[in-house]
Amino acid sequence: MNPLVTLEQVDLALKLDLVEDDERTPDIEWKMRQATEIVIDYLKRPDHEWTVEDVPGQVSAAIILAIRALLDGEEAELLSGLANSDTSSPVVALLMRLRDPAVA
Predict the structure, then answer these.
(1) DSSP secondary structure string, 13-62?
(2) Inter-CA distances, 91 with 18, 29, 73, 94, Å
(3) Which residues lie below 8 Å from residue 48, measured CB to CB, with a gap of 6+?
(4) Do residues 67 and 37 touch, judged by C-beta distance below 8 A?
(5) What is the pLDDT along the chain (104 residues), one digit of tens a residue?
(6) Number of other CB atoms surrounding residue 63 within 10 Å
């Protein structure tokens, strides 16, 4: 799955101050893919047709927050908030209105 945010957006939003050929870039790009998959999985929209150009703002913001959590080593907190739909989680708060409801 292709990330729905660009490296430039992540760099600017997270104030990473990346330079050309930055040694952190491969790790950040890997976390961009992971965060995108986490958010899309939470939304239950594997067949979305969004691109970097037309992804909803809440989704790109949630992806960037997820990237920050992954970079900061807060994977457990991120995943716990998503698994429990914890509305105090910033990622859940951004995405809850876009999420396909569960069918019982």
Answers:
(1) HHT----TT-TTHHHHHHHHHHHHHHHHHHHT-TT----TTT--HHHHHH
(2) 24, 19, 16, 5
(3) 40
(4) no
(5) 888 999 999 999 999 998 988 899 999 999 999 999 999 999 999 999 999 999 999 999 999 999 999 998 888 888 888 888 888 889 999 998 998 776 65
(6) 29
Size of the chain, expressed as the number of residues it contains: 104
pTM check: above 0.70: yes
Backbone torsions φ then ψ of 27, nearest 5 degrees: -65, -40
Report d(CA 16, CA 8) in Å as an integer: 10
Cα separations (Å) of 62 from 20, 42, 57, 95, 99?
A: 26, 11, 8, 7, 12
Residues 73, 77, 78, 79: is their CA dihedral positive or negative?
Answer: positive
Domain range list for the chain: 7-95
Q: Is 93 left (phi over 0), alpha (psi -120 to 50) or beta?
A: alpha
